[in-house]
Amino acid sequence: MSIRIYNPVDSITFGQYEGTPLSKVFKYHPHYVEWAIIKIPEFAIDMEAFEKLPKPTPVHLKGAYEQENGFVKFIIEKYNVQPYSKDDKDGNKFPYFSGNEFLSLIEEFIRDKGYKPEQYDFKFTSNTKKINEDKCNEAGEDDEEPEPYYEEPDYDYEREYFNTMTDGQLGDYDDFRERGGDLDKVDDWSGK
After folding, report:
1. φ and ψ at 95, to 5 degrees?
2. What value does the mean pLDDT take over residues 13-37?
3. Residue 187 contacts by C-beta under 8 Å, 6 or more apart in sequence?
């Protein structure tokens, strides 16, 4: 698994907001970014950079829907037809749009209707911050190049094996070899 640490200017590479800069997703749907940290194993963010962004202004929160000329009405009037719709719990039809379409509509609604969304004092939970920190640390470890494997030129496997298995109880390795000892005798002696 290769963890990617996203900055606000990076475009998200998965899900309903694929291709959208994360700063825009965070602005209108900050909980999606938090959800991605928790649920997507290879997703992490530069927490410090996101915490420096202006407070989010999610239109989907209370306010936009309560206005007489609210967001849902704006969508219905704009499109008149509802080719993609889902039933809500009461069986009413509401337009359904992909994440990118939804964010574009929010911006259009704000621009055309003069809606002024309230800033939302969003903070990542301590659990989310911990998960993100762990992922960033893991990603940092992945970036380190592994030390190349090599055998020491003077490495004597038999000598090392003898010393490990006997812990000096059969004397010195060189003396043992001079007396005709070999690794089979070490294994026999150790009961291996």
Report:
1. -60, 145
2. 90
3. 165
Inter-axis angle of helices 126-143 and 30-39, to 10 degrees?
A: 60
Q: Are 60 and 49 in contact (CB under 8 A)?
A: no
Contacts of 78 (CB under 8 A, 6+ apart): 105
SS3 state at 181: coil
Nearest Cα residue to 64 out of 55, 53, 73: 73
Token readout for 139 is 């990603």
> What phi, psi does 172 have (nearest 5°)?
-80, 145
Sequence-distant (6+) residues with CB within 8 A of 125 are: 34
Q: Which residue did the predictor score with more confidence, 67 or 118? A: 118
Round to whole Å and give the CA distance between 82 and 116: 26
Phi/psi for 141 (5° steps) reads -65, -35
d(CA 132, CA 156): 46
Model confidence pTM above 0.70? no
Q: Can you list the pairs that 62-67 forms with residues at least 24 positions away whose Cβ atoms lie under 8 Å?
A: 63/117, 63/118, 64/109, 64/115, 64/117, 67/115
* Partners of 94 in the β-ladder: 86
Supply 165's token pair.
């298995």
